[in-house]
């Protein structure tokens, strides 16, 4: 999966990086390299499935889709 990220320099120093396609997926760091590592981890956590994401119900189905 390819995602566009935005890397900005912070007024306080360092970098802020976020993913426009994933609301709330944001990270910061003092170096560009660390900012990119951090946002990769944030993306992985953002997209990670958790068991409590689905509440069973007789009207719901689970399907998989590749994007």
In terms of topology, how is this protein built?
Elements: E1 6-9, E2 15-18, E3 26-29, H1 32-47
Antiparallel strand pairs: 1-2, 2-3
* Main sheet: strand order: 1-2-3
- Identify low-pLDDT runs: none
Coarse morphology: elongated
Largest sheet: 3 strands, antiparallel
Amount of helix: 10-25%
Strand content: 15-25%
- How far the N terminus sits from the C terminus, by CA atoms, comes to 8 Å
**Mean of pLDDT:** 89
Write up this protein:
The chain has 67 residues and is α+β, with helices and mostly antiparallel strands. The protein has a domain at 6-48. The chain has one helix and three strands. It is elongated and about 50 Å long. The termini are close together.
Which terms summarize this structure?
single chain; 67 residues; alpha+beta; three-stranded antiparallel beta sheet; 3 strands; 24% helix
Quick overview of this protein structure:
The protein has one helix at 32-47; strands at 6-9, 15-18, 26-29. With 67 residues, it is an alpha+beta fold.
